[in-house]
Design goal:
The complex is a heterodimer. By secondary structure, chain A is α/β, with parallel strands linked by helices. Chain A is built from 24 helices and 22 strands. In chain B, helix 2 packs across helix 4. Chain B is globular. The chains are: A alpha/beta, B alpha+beta.
């Protein structure tokens, strides 16, 4: 027992808050869970109340600072023979009561620190931890961590879903927390089996900064310390790097190598992600200035897509013009093709002394042409050269796999395009229920950039709002993160059922959205260390402070040191992938020397074998490599000791 | 449990009254007004003049225990014109270890809760039906006025509290005890060898008469004491004790007794020797201050802590109201 509940006429206890005193030496602080045992019984059941400490007060019997000053004769180092007795009074918010009814004021009773069973009861995890619990971290001291579970159905859906995390960049460890949570999710595959659509969970992450998420499949540079290992043990699984990760990145502008920092012969290579013309047409608002896209331009772009991108058509829709242009069918696979078609339309229209074609004025057409011109140059490497996009969304997602899209080396506009196109595609696949897994977790950082508050109506905001509103029913779960929660679209934040807060700056904490927390909790949020979070979950009546372990994978900066980016030939990449899939290295090297295929053939082969399921499939694919006629350039690095 | 109001509902002589919860304890006011002056100067312990002595400065104190008593009194009812009081009396002895005055330990607290009824009133039986509260019959003259009856009750309650303190003090054996008040009763039974020191804050009884004694006592400066004198044995104060006046605080705009206490020591030669050191310890106990208590100039902080412990255990105003029943 550490203290007793107190209630005075001036500050009585209520049904939802209570106060208790405790000796200053007791291990009680903001976020501590406590249990109150009252003498009261209701229908033979003793009243027990669980609460979380949200405020702490400490005082002695001093009435005025002046009295202390006078006592000590202005000598602060003086120690009077008697110490003033000091007491701590804590305010706690009720988490749970037994019996549940009636919801009366908290009784005057004995206060205990919560043990593991009490923590489970207080947070209501006792009802689901075994069947649907996902360990989010641990409550309690470093020496005695007690796991705290989130309910899978409320974290990923369908009951509720989505997670939103707020925290200062660099201090809040947003990425680390989400990595650990994903590990916890993957550690319990049985939760996502059984009757229902699809099975298992996959995750799609965007790497937006440096090498943050580029080494998830590698063990950490320094072993986890005992505290972290103990946390993992308490959470119920052994720490390990993500075993199944696929990395994607756009091409460099020369379309030869990948635009990523994950380029090292010891690492599995990144796969390409590009977007075809149809996808580009859907997201021109990302590529062009908002002012360019008035309703007339919008209409003409839709016309171009329908006429020449989705299918081939005659040059004009109007019969009179169509006769003029003749029966030839036109289709566009690239921006360049499309601009040529526009030129043709303008030319023929002018020959016919017209000022508009198919209802679109020349001024509008000129304007759109003008804006489209050069897009493929500005977005080189992101836009497919053959009009056909590549990437992780071409095949169903696999359970237990993490898909990382590396956009860190892209310009802000290029990032927007990739992000917008992927989110929109995911939404479409979600609608068609073609995700392939029961739940796909999409982690989106910098939400205040992609879904800012203030009512901006863009495709990406609409997609995120839609996913936030309906995704949980369809297996698409958003793990959003941002530095400034107050600057994120309310619908996107509001639809998240689980909220996590790391270290937050005072300016952000001063926003009205944080008034829900007591001032002490806000103060603590302002000084949280990496590895500590405050978490709100539908099953918890109050937010709870938790500690989570360091992710069991290589972080970005260590990864960059261990695997500095270097040019890896296509041949070496093929050898590496084939070897990972169990194919004999020597056999692959001999094959490459013998066939000496073209660069294009090598790239195609690499993409294919990366998608291949097993060793035999890889071998079959490689055997199909065409032999280059009249060339003798080795496809792989001659300096490579394996060569 | 029947309340007073119910017990006496049909008795035309009885009038149950309710004092406000914050009303001043009128009996303690009454008690403070009672002063006794001395006809002669008290005899000195040693030969020599009665003078002011500067106490050697001490930065330590060796008191290990502190004893005080407390009372909470309420006028409960009148029977005819006779007042009946309800009083909770208590006493506690608290140890101090490593600068911390600890809570009340087993056997170191005593309390009584009683009605105080002037003798001759036919209501004792009815009052005894109030659960958990005793009845003390206070001897009063048959024709005593209300004021006289009250004075008798004041004395009875005070005696009751003193007896609680006395029992605790008599049980004390190890350490150096500082008592709030005189030590005469604590030393009864030949227990004069124990280290017991009393600090008397009130000056209801004077031990000086001559002009030079008055001048010496009232002229004491902070940190000065008087020559030791004998506080003689009497009924109300118990066995004889060594005593001296000591000035703890001084303020130009306060009365002559401001910061003046009278210290009592057991009548043993070793205390005469240690008198100066003990005075130094008491001066040392001035910190921390007992402010904002109005008696901060004479109330030593550890004693104030004992008082606070006692007051925390007194029955609440709500409970007293419930007992009275209206």
């Amino acid at each position: 027992m550490i203290g007793r509940v107190i209630g005075t006429e001036r500050r009585p206890n209520t049904a939802y808050t209570f106060q208790f005193w405790a000796d200053p030496t007791e291990k009680v602080g903001i976020g501590t869970l406590v249990k109150v045992e009252g003498d009261l019984e209701i229908d033979g059941t003793p009243v027990t109340v669980y609460g979380v400490v949200v405020e702490a007060h400490g005082y002695n019997d001093l009435d005025s600072a002046l009295h202390e000053f006078m006592t000590l004769g202005a000598s602060p180092d003086q120690a009077p023979p008697t110490e003033r007795p000091e007491i701590r009074v804590y305010e706690a918010a009720v988490l749970r009561r037994e019996p549940e009814e009636p919801i009366g004021a908290v009784p005057i009773g004995k206060v205990h620190l919560a043990d593991e069973a009490d923590v489970q009861k207080a947070l209501r995890t006792d009802g689901y931890a075994a069947s649907h619990g996902i360990a989010a971290g641990c409550y309690g001291s470093r020496e005695e961590p007690m796991p705290v579970h989130l309910h899978a159905h409320f974290l990923l859906g369908p009951e509720s879903g989505h997670l939103n995390m707020t925290g200062t960049s660099g201090l809040a460890a947003k990425t680390s927390f989400i990595q650990t949570l994903l590990q916890s999710i993957f550690a319990r595959p049985e939760v996502f089996e059984g009757p229902g659509e699809g099975r298992g969970v996959a995750a799609l992450l965007f790497n937006t900064k440096g090498g943050d998420l580029l080494f998830l499949d590698q063990p950490p540079a320094t072993p986890l310390d005992e505290t972290d290992v103990a946390l993992y043990r308490a959470m119920g699984y052994e720490p390990q790097a993500f075993p199944n990760v696929e990395y994607y990145a756009p091409y460099e502008s020369d379309h030869r190598s990948m635009r990523t920092l994950r380029k090292h012969p010891d690492l599995s290579p990144c796969r390409p992600i590009t977007f075809g013309l149809a996808e580009i047409m859907d997201h021109l608002e990302v590529l062009l200035s908002r002012d360019d896209l008035d309703s007339k331009a919008d209409s003409y772009i839709a016309y171009l897509k329908q006429m020449f991108v989705v299918r081939k058509s005659r040059l004009f829709r109007e019969a009179r013009l169509s006769e003029l242009a003749g029966p030839e069918m036109h289709g566009a696979a690239t921006i360049e093709d499309l601009v040529k078609i526009i030129d043709l339309q303008l030319e023929m229209g002018r020959e016919g002394t017209l000022d508009r074609v198919d209802g679109h004025h020349f001024f509008t057409i000129e304007k759109v042409k003008n804006r489209l011109n050069g897009i493929d140059q500005r977005f080189k490497g992101v836009i497919a050269t053959d009009g056909k996009g590549e990437g992780p969304l071409d095949a169903p997602f696999e359970p237990g796999k993490v898909y990382v899209i590396d956009v860190a080396k892209l310009s802000s506009r290029e990032q927007d395009l990739v992000f917008s196109a992927i989110i929109t595609k995911l939404r479409n696949r979600m609608e068609l229920q073609e995700l392939g897994v029961r739940h796909l977790v999409v982690m989106v950082d910098e939400l205040n950039k992609y879904a800012p508050s203030g009512g901006r109506d863009t495709a990406i905001v609409r997609s995120l709002q839609d996913i936030a509103a309906r995704g949980r029913y369809m297996g698409l779960t958003l793990f959003g993160a941002q530095q400034f929660r107050s600057r994120v679209d309310k619908e996107v934040v509001g639809n998240a059922a689980t909220h996590v807060f790391g270290h937050i700056e005072a300016e952000e904490l001063a926003q009205p959205g944080y008034s829900y927390f007591s001032s002490a909790v806000r103060e603590k949020l302002g000084s949280l260390n990496p590895g500590e979070v405050l978490i709100k979950h539908p099953h918890f009546k109050q937010p709870i402070f938790l500690r989570f372990p360091r992710p069991a994978c290589l972080n970005g900066s260590d990864g960059m040191r261990r695997y500095p980016a270097q040019t890896v030939s296509l041949g070496d990449q093929i050898v590496r992938v084939a070897s990972d899939k169990g194919v004999n290295v020597q056999w692959v090297q001999d094959l490459l020397i013998e066939r000496d295929p073209s660069e294009e053939a090598l790239r195609r082969a690499l993409n294919e074998i990366m998608r291949a399921g097993d060793q035999r499939e890889v071998q079959r694919m490689l055997e199909r490599l065409p032999k280059r006629i009249g060339a003798a350039v080795a496809a792989f690095d001659k300096d490579d000791p394996f060569a | 449990m029947p309340s007073l109001h119910r017990l006496f509902a049909d008795d035309p002589m009885a009038r149950v009254v309710t004092a406000g919860p914050r009303d001043e304890d009128e009996l303690s006011v009454l008690g403070d007004l009672a002063l006794e002056s001395s006809a002669v100067d008290a005899p000195l312990v040693s030969d020599g003049p009665f003078v002011a002595v500067a106490v050697s400065k001490s930065d330590k104190t060796e008191f290990t225990h502190f004893l005080d008593g407390s009372q909470k009194t309420r006028l409960a009812m009148y029977y005819g014109l006779s007042p009946i009081y309800l009083a909770h009396t208590s006493a506690a002895l608290l140890p101090r270890r490593e600068r911390e005055v600890l809570g009340i330990e087993a056997g170191a607290y005593r309390e009584e809760f009683d009605f105080y009824v002037p003798s001759g009133l036919p209501i004792g039986d009815r009052l005894s039906r109030v659960e958990g509260i005793g009845v003390q019959i206070v001897t009063a003259e048959a024709d005593a006025t209300t004021l006289q009856a009250r004075k008798a009750i004041v004395d009875a309650i005070s005696d009751r509290r003193d007896s609680l303190e006395e029992r605790l003090a008599q049980d004390f054996a190890e350490g150096r005890l500082l008592i709030d008040g005189g030590i005469g009763k604590a030393l009864r039974g030949g227990r004069e060898d124990r280290f017991v020191v009393g600090v008397v804050k009130s000056h209801r009884k004077q031990y000086f008469r001559s002009r030079e004694r008055v001048e010496t006592i009232l002229g004491l400066e902070v940190g000065q004491r008087t020559t030791a004198f004998w506080r003689e044995r009497d009924e109300s104060q118990g066995v004889r004790a060594i005593s001296f006046y000591l000035r703890l605080h001084e303020r130009d705009d306060a009365g002559p007794l401001h910061g003046l206490v009278r210290v009592e020591l057991p009548p043993d030669a070793r205390f005469v020797e240690e008198m100066d050191a003990i005075a130094g310890w008491i001066l040392c106990e001035r910190a921390p201050s007992s402010l904002p208590d109005a008696r901060y100039d004479r109330l030593l902080y550890p004693i104030r802590l004992v008082e606070r412990h006692l007051k925390a255990r007194q029955p609440s105003d709500v409970r007293l109201h419930a007992l009275v029943g209206r």
